[in-house]
Write a structure and sequence with these properties.
With about 45 residues, this protein is mainly β. The protein has one domain (about 1-35). It is built from no helices and three strands. It has strands spanning about 15, 20, 25-30. Strands 1-2-3 form a three-stranded antiparallel beta sheet, with no helix packed on it. The protein is elongated and about 40 Å long. This is Insertion element protein. It comes from Nonomuraea typhae.
Length: about 45
């Protein structure tokens, strides 16, 4: 796993390697959940 970005705001996560913390949105994310987190899609006008 090469990405350590917050799934919500795409900010670089700190701490780790088991539990990461996002300083921007004050969210805690487990490393096991980084690949499984829901990432909102950007809708494109048709």
């Amino acid at each position: 796993m090469s990405s350590t970005q917050c799934p919500r705001c795409q900010t670089e996560l700190d701490e780790g390697p088991i539990m990461y913390r996002c300083a921007t949105c004050c969210r805690t994310v487990y490393a096991a959940d980084l690949e499984n987190e829901f990432v909102a899609r950007h809708f494109v006008a048709a």
